[in-house]
Amino acid sequence: MEDRHKECLLKNRVFMCSEISLSTGLFANLTESGVITDEHLQKLQNIIRNDTTKAAVLYFLTELLPKRGSKAFNLFLEALCESQQEHIADHLKQCLSDVCPEDAGTFKSLRSELQSYYKRRLASIRPMPWLQDIYLNLTDVFVERQLKLKTNHKGDERIVTMKNLFTPQETEEIPRRLLIEGNPGIGKSTICQTLAHEWGKQSCGRHCGTLCVHSFDLVLSFHAGDFIDVESVAHAVQKHLLPSDYSITPSELQGVIKAKNVLIIVDAFDEANAGNRTLDRLIEGDILRHKTLLITSRFNFLENKQRHFESRFTVEGYDEEERLEHVKRYAEHKNIASAPFESMLKDKSILDLCSNPLNLTLLCLLREEDTQLRITRTALYTSIHRIIKQKAAKRLKLIEAEVEESLLRPLYQFAFEAHQKNETVVREKDSKKVQNFQRICEVGYLTNEVIISRLQKEVRFQFTHKTFVEFLTAKHIAEMDREERMNWMQHLRYADYSIWIGGLAIEDFKVEQNEPILGFLFGLLEEESAELTQMASLVINETRFSYEHHPLSLVSPCGASHQLLRLIAELNVVPPELAEVICKRRPPLINIHRHCSVSCRRGMLKLCNLRFQPPIRMNVYLIDSHDEEEMMSFVQKLIESKSIDCSKKIWIKPRNDTELWNDVRGLRIGQADSFQQVSIYCFNIEGIPCEEFSFGNHLSELELFRFKPWHSFLLEAALHKPLTSLQFIRCYKLDDRCISLIHQLLRNQRNLQRVQLTSWQHFGCFLADFAQMENLQSLEITLNDSTDEELRSLEAILKRNKLSELTIHSWYFSYSRSLYSVLNDSFNSMSSLRELRLRYVNIIHLPNLRHLDLINFSLLSPSELNDDGIAVLSDALRSWRNLQQLSIDFDPFSSVAEQLSIDFDFRFSVAECSLRKLFEAIAGCHRLQILRFDSLEMADSVVPSVCRMIESLKQLRKFTSVGNKSLTEEGFKQLEPIIKRNGLNIHME
Ligand SMILES: Nc1ncnc2c1ncn2[C@@H]1O[C@H](COP(=O)(O)OP(=O)(O)OP(=O)(O)O)[C@@H](O)[C@H]1O
Q: Residues 525-550: pLDDT tens digits?
């Protein structure tokens, strides 16, 4: 036995004499492993019989164990664990790592083993690992990356350099769980590689911050797949990071990991997330909670685990400077002139390709061979593929057609099968299905015999990059016959779902997850016009491309309805047959918003080149976009296009008065050939723009968000414009001058069809003006305490029966009896009303709701909805046969109040039987397409009714339920198959 073990036993004699139980289990384990013999056992039992158990323990610790050989101590620890005395083993291990200087020896040797491993293995990047002669020195070519740190749930971000990755960010705490997300090929693995390699170099020089990677005692750098089928991090280290002849046991490793300051890096969660229990536990902090864990993943794979991460970063494409640095470093490393690469960066058509480090590296490699630039991702990968094929043909002494037929086709099939399983490997058993697998490997897409286990000699074959798996998969699908391909496409999902239920790991799906392959498929079949058109038609149907999607908001995603745009971005030219289908099935309106991707915008410009009559109307949300300059020039191209009708609305958020004026001029707001509707986020505008500030003479809609009295120059500029819509949203308290200007505007504008005036303020003073407006169709207003005269005006407006939309806000349930009675009486004569939204309302006073014929109804938060209210609502729903959208905000305060034991007078609880009746009534609205609940307490017992409701709503395509705290895993299981039906977009929290 080693001295440090003896010392440890010595120091813990008292502890062990009182803690150890000399149980049959312990004796059985000790005899089985040979730590004690049968004679020893008899001797111990005699001592117990004649003296005490403590005396026996002491004899065992002093006379027996130390003399039983070098492995005795560890076997003793194992025997303790096996006989339910793990706490004693842990105590001894802890003590060992604290007091024994020799344990520092174990740590030192482990540290230097790992450091030299990283220094050697991670020194070079092989962008095409099959071409061993193409490798780049990591230190030479690495471009320092900047990461964006999400600073709050609203999506605000801050730039963090790699040097400050581990520095405490929003809180004082050192982050323990860090996540880096990014697109394929964006450089996530290279970041991991650099961190581990840097640590391997031992010294930080003067480069790093105080909490740099060198501040960790150990860095354990893994691929996510390394955790599959291993029970602990220690086992993973032994299996994947250490050579098989390195002598250390998992428990010793465990001891070092526990005692030291360790960084665990796990790359590519997206490639090995299914059934990866150890990794899940690590993320959740169920094991090694106090160690630092850095995970990388492509987007959308960790949605349900986001809450475990204190620091969430994204790594985005290169900016201009980084692109330049990349090509310069590349040229310098290759010792060639950088001018050809730099000129390549000037070509705008490949700018987005150049922003991706992988693509830029491939472009550089191609540029060395060929001067023609590739414009789409498919074109780029096709070129690379061709090079590989040519090289393989030469090397294997085959003609290219033979390589294609006998080697590449099976490879496409392997890629397809791997992709179906969300893997990037071919397992050994699958490789045996084809005779010439070894030759297939020689082509170069699969790295040869990656031995993933040094202990068990398990073999698998790794595809070089996930994007290549996707490209090769697309090649396989492109070669399928039409029926098979369409069948594959039909089985994809085209609606998003996101489900966050506390403690449940449910994967999310965003339609973008299909796109890498569909994009390649579109690109590959560009010449096959009929095939392409058929595929595009399916995407048009499934993603509801031809529908009008609205409203547009801050959080609108570049979602399913834009998929076709993103896919046609992969085409060099839209073939006439496809162009015809797109023209025929074009949507009446397209919303472009801040999250629209570069490829979406490229697709949009492709659409502009098709000749439409009439043109497509366009809304553009130009607020907070990532690259404002680029976005501005994109919008200007849209304005110039004959196929786009930019007379629709644009949202702008100028940072000051100069920017306001630049936007209004640059985007020609209010002019005949440009946007005639504008929404201005006024909050930041402090000064007053120059005197000639004005909108074009065709301005038809002015929406002012967070308007303050000193923005009155905006009202003056709109005074004589032909407005049909005027909106003030969440405006500040108006002064007399603004009130008078609004009166003037309302009196000038007899054509106004839509007016919105909302804040916490009462706007009844304008009702008399509205009553004079013959054309008013949509009214949204905040009313608190209305006078009799105001109510008479309101009644006149409602009973004129011209309104198709009505929204009433009020402050703290200030609906008076007389307001209820005006509304309720008027409902009988409002046959034109189609959309109704009410806030702070108690609908038990509105039984005449059932006389309306609504398409859209919302009870906005907070509303008084108790059992009686639900009865009135259910009654109304039964008569609204044309209802398409329903949104009900249950009382969000009641559960908060309950938690805080506060007795608010607006707490309402709802009986389950009422809820069931409500669900039954909704189930009868067969035209319902969008259903939203907020703070609905959907307990498991009502789930069967919810299931029946969703099943009966065949046209339902969007279901949202947020703020539900009652559903358990059991209840969710019943709901899951129903809500995950294809075509249904779900959002549950
Ligand atoms: N910071 C960088 N400096 C220089 N080259 C880089 C950098 N990051 C990435 N590259 C190049 O891009 C290639 C792909 O990068 P990497 O494998 O890190 O991407 P990834 O985000 O992990 O992709 P995937 O999600 O497909 O696995 C690298 O092989 C390298 O050639």
A: 999 999 999 999 999 999 989 987 66
Enter the DSSP assignment of 215.
G
pLDDT band at 748; cut points 50, 70, 90: confident
Count of residues making up the chain: 989
C-beta pairs of 716-722 under 8 Å, 24+ apart in sequence: 716/741, 717/693, 718/745, 719/744, 719/745, 719/748, 720/748, 721/670, 721/695, 721/697, 722/697, 722/698, 722/749, 722/751
Nearest to 571 by CA among 546, 609, 603, 604: 603
For the segment 126-143, the average pLDDT, to the nearest whole number, is: 80
Ligand 1 center from residue 381 Cα (angstroms): 15
Q: Provide the H-helix boundaries in 86-179.
A: 86-99, 101-121, 138-141
Task: Reduce the secondary structure of 839-890 to three states and give it as a string.
Answer: ECCEHHHCHHHHHCCCCEEEEECCCECCHHHHHHHHHHHHHCCCCCEEEEEC
The answer, yes or no, to whether residue 917 has pLDDT greater than 60, is yes
555 or 434, which is more confident: 434
Q: How far apart are CA 560 and CA 574, in angstroms?
A: 20
Query: How far does residue 611's CA lie from ligand 1's centre (Å)?
Result: 40
- For ligand 1, atom 24: residue with the closest CA: 184
CATH of domain 110-316: 3.40.50.300
Pocket test for ligand 1, best of 356, 361, 366, 467 (most atoms within 8 A of CB): 361
Give the confidence band of 324 by pLDDT, cuts at 50, 70, 90.
very high
CA of 190 to the centre of ligand 1 (A): 5
Are 806 and 797 in contact by the 8 Å Cβ rule? The answer is no
C-alpha 361 to ligand 1 mean position (Å): 9
Ligand 1 atom with the shortest distance to the CA of 270: 25
Pair 164, 395: CB distance under 8 Å: no
Spell out the domain ranges in the chain.
Answer: 3-99, 110-316, 318-375, 388-479, 834-989
What is the average pLDDT score of the chain?
86
Do the bridges between strand 856-860 and strand 835-839 make them parallel or antiparallel, or are there none, so unpaired?
Answer: parallel
Q: Which helix (H) or strand (E) holds 281?
A: helix 277-284
Q: What are phi and psi of 862, to 5 degrees?
A: -90, 145
Angle between helices 250-259 and 233-240 (to 10 degrees): 120
Mean pLDDT of 460-483: 89
Going by alpha carbons, the residue nearest to atom 9 of ligand 1 is: 187
Cβ pair 416, 476 in contact under 8 A: yes
CATH superfamily, domain 834-989, is Ribonuclease Inhibitor (3.80.10.10)
Q: Tell me whether the omega of the peptide bond preceding residue 615 falls within 30 degrees of 0, making it cis.
A: no
CATH second-level architecture of 3-99?
Orthogonal Bundle (1.10)
Q: Give the predicted TM-score (pTM) of the model.
A: 0.70
* Measured distance CA(802)–CA(793) in Å, rounded: 14
pLDDT in tens, 606-651: 998 888 778 888 888 888 776 677 788 899 999 988 888 877 899 9
pLDDT digits 0-9 by tens, 12-43: 887 888 788 888 888 888 888 888 888 888 99
Contact 465, 184 (CB under 8 A): yes
Task: Note whether 93 and 77 are within 8 A (CB).
Answer: yes
User: What gap in Å lies between CA 132 and CA 130, rounded to an integer?
Assistant: 6
Q: Do domains 3-99 and 110-316 have the same CATH topology?
A: no
pLDDT band, residue 872 (cuts 50/70/90):
very high
332-341: per-residue pLDDT in tens? 998 999 998 9
Alpha-carbon gap, residue 474 to 650, rounded angstroms = 38
Report yes or no for ipTM above 0.90.
yes
Sequence-distant (6+) residues with CB within 8 A of 731 are: 704, 706, 707, 708, 757, 758, 759, 761
Q: Which residue has the CA at smallest separation from atom 25 of ligand 1? A: 184
| Residue among 190, 193, 419, 472 whose CB has most ligand 1 atoms within 8 A, to mutate | 190
Nearest CA to ligand 1 atom 1: 143
